[in-house]
Amino acid sequence: MSTGGKPPAPDPQDFLGLDRELDTDEVTVRDTVRAFARSTLYPHIAEWFDAGTIPEPRTLAKSFGELGLLGMHLEGYGCAGTSAVSYGVACRELEAVDSGIRSFVSVQGSLAMAALYKYGSEEQRQTWLPGMATGDVIGCFGLTEPDAGSDPGSMRTRARRQGSDWIIDGTKMWITNGTVADVAVVWAQTDEGVRGFVVPTDTPGFQANVIRQKLSLRASITAELVLDGVRLPDSARLPEVAGLGAALSCLNEARYGIVWGAAGAARACYAAALDYTGTRVQFGRPIAGFQLTQRRLADMVVDVTHADMTALRIGRLKDAGQCHHNHVSFGKFANVAAAQRVASAARGLHGANGITLEYPVMRHMVNLETVATYEGTEEIHALSVGQAVTGLSSFR
């Protein structure tokens, strides 16, 4: 029933008031991560992007550990045990600064730690997870190969038995944190199918090489992993893995973070454009007052709001135990595309200033080129959604 009072005007930064749907714990996570991101990360991110690296990744990992962000959605072993929505909100606030920063947290928590948590032995969990939760130990996840991206089942990395040991040979590509990692979760073909292995990076035969000259995701450490006769005991094998599905389930955890992260990148670009157009004066008035500018801003706020709605809904499904991997594909497919539209429009509204690192929009725009293709390209997720709605698989 209407009380007759005039409703408040929409908040330009949260048009439909979606953040009012967050509970107290989720708001606390949002405010804590946002404050840290703005005070500690944002002042340096342009410099890191320009340099093409994160200068002190171990210091950053420790800071994330102190905030409880590493493996925050896992239970025990020093992990925070938060809700999926809380984890998503953290990813959104981190990627509002930069996709590379969110990737650091996602790879540690949703790939390396999640693989150990879900598929490792209790000894493996006790050995690695507490240190990874605090940031004292950095992990990476070796699945993608130079010739096996969208089709990881065609990987050439091979693990063969030799007595009671395993010998691993192969190459992994595009591995976040690879050169600073203390432990790598590596996936390999065996005579029994795909298996996962926990590889300390000081093991003889293991080498990580920095991938340079990237034009996207520059504030991130990306590596090639080379395994040449790496010998491991059978205790290094993840005992609960029986096929490629285990690796793909870990990817689904990380993709969930991307659903929220893309929403953060979109929101950051929209906020920058709204601020810039409100202060940039041409022809005697702010350019935000022109019709074509307002149309762009209207399109942007719709995309930003849709992305937030999608992320929140999938998060609620995940917390209720009702999130299918097709839901996550829907979210990545929709939200990355929305973020790309917003970033492109924001770049245009900034004019020539939009191509500089003084403003965040071009940095987000090129980062999203990577986000669109890693952990499942746009095409792969479109086909996943297509299979879900038709019941027919177009994959071989």
TrEMBL record:
Residues covered by the Acyl-CoA dehydrogenase/oxidase N-terminal domain: 25-136
Reaction(s) the record says it catalyses: glutaryl-CoA + oxidized [electron-transfer flavoprotein] + 2 H(+) = (2E)-butenoyl-CoA + reduced [electron-transfer flavoprotein] + CO2
Pathway: Amino-acid metabolism; lysine degradation; Amino-acid metabolism; tryptophan metabolism
Cofactor(s) needed: FAD
InterPro entries assigned: Acyl-CoA_DH_CS, Acyl-CoA_Oxase/DH_mid-dom, Acyl-CoA_Oxase/DH_mid-dom_sf, AcylCo_DH-like_C, AcylCo_DH/oxidase_C, AcylCoA_DH/ox_N, AcylCoA_DH/ox_N_sf, AcylCoA_DH/oxidase_NM_dom_sf
Taxonomic superkingdom: Bacteria
Domain Acyl-CoA oxidase/dehydrogenase middle residue range list: 140-230
Keywords: FAD, Flavoprotein, Oxidoreductase, Transit peptide
EC number per UniProt: 1.3.8.6
Domain Acyl-CoA dehydrogenase/oxidase C-terminal as annotated: residue spans: 243-389
Family (UniProt): Belongs to the acyl-CoA dehydrogenase family.
Protein name: glutaryl-CoA dehydrogenase (ETF)
